[in-house]
Amino acid sequence: MSKDKVITEITKFHKEWINFVEVYALNKNQKLYSEDFVQAMYLKLLNTKSFDYKKLYVDNKINHNKLRGYILRTLKSIIIDDHKKKEIQTIRLNEKFNIPEIIDVKENLEVVFNKIEKTISNMYWYDKKMLNLYVYHIPSIRKISTATTISSKSVFKTLKRCKLTIKKEIAKEYYYGKTG
Questions:
Q1: In the beta sheet, which residues pair with residue 57?
Q2: What is the spatial distance between Cα 118 and Cα 180, in angstroms, rounded to a whole number?
Q3: Alpha-carbon span 165 to 75, nearest angstrom
Q4: Which domains does the chain have, with CATH numbers?
Q5: How many CB atoms lie within 10 A of CB 175?
Q6: Are 179 and 167 contacting, i.e. CB atoms less than 8 angstroms apart?
Q7: DSSP run (H or E) holding 60
Q8: What's CA 12's distance to the chain center, in Å?
Q9: 3-class SS letters over 72-128
Q10: 143: buried, middle or exposed (CB in 10 Å: 19+, 13-18, 0-12)?
Q11: What string of pLDDT tens digits covers the 180 residues of the chain?
């Protein structure tokens, strides 16, 4: 019943430990170097004085549930420690660095609003009326449905189509992510 015997028992499940690291990796590098994390775990177990391998024995046999739990906790702590120690980039105030020109926000918003108005003016008349009703008068699909006797599903689909059209038109010039 020695530490080496326990480590030998642990290495029998080497592939399982690698799979665990790949599943619980916090970034792509950790997945890529999962073998290294398992090796680091072996080293940590060998070098740690607090690793009480005697607690893993029950009736002179290794309790695999305790062993597995201990190893998985150790691997998780190694993964988290690695993630935390990634270098954070800092910018010193006395260094020169390129700052893109700051665009006048008012001009930029004016261009966007003009684009929205142009898009709305090119919409089908029904879509325009429904959007106008929703934006300026009744900001509730249920209340529009009740007031116009048009089904709420139809009102919802129309408004969704209008919003999507506006997003697509704006995204042509200013792409901010998904448009749909």
A1: 62
A2: 20
A3: 49
A4: 3-84 (no CATH), 105-173 (1.10.10.10)
A5: 9
A6: yes
A7: none
A8: 34
A9: HHHHHHHHHHHHHCCCCCCCCCCCCCCCCCCCCHHHHHHHHHHHHHHHHHCCCHHHH
A10: middle
A11: 566 777 777 888 888 888 888 888 877 777 778 888 888 888 887 777 666 767 777 766 777 777 788 888 888 888 888 877 765 555 555 555 554 444 555 667 778 888 889 999 999 999 999 999 998 898 899 999 999 999 999 999 999 999 999 888 887 766 555 544
In the chain, what is the straight-line distance between the N-terminal and C-terminal CA atoms, in Å? 62
Maximum CA extent, the chain: 84
In whole angstroms, what is the distance from residue 80 CA to residue 63 CA?
A: 26
* Rounded CA Rg of the chain: 31
The residue among 162, 169, 157 whose CA lies nearest residue 135 is: 162
Dist. CA 153–CA 176, nearest whole Å: 28
Do residues 62 and 9 make contact, with C-beta atoms less than 8 angstroms apart?
Answer: yes
Amino acid identity of 24? Y
Token couple for 6:
């326990």
**Residues near 131 by beta carbon (within 8 Å), at least 6 away in sequence:** 120, 123, 158, 159, 162
Tell me if residue 12 falls in helix, strand or coil: coil
Report how far Cα 99 is from the mean position of its chain's Cα atoms.
Answer: 28
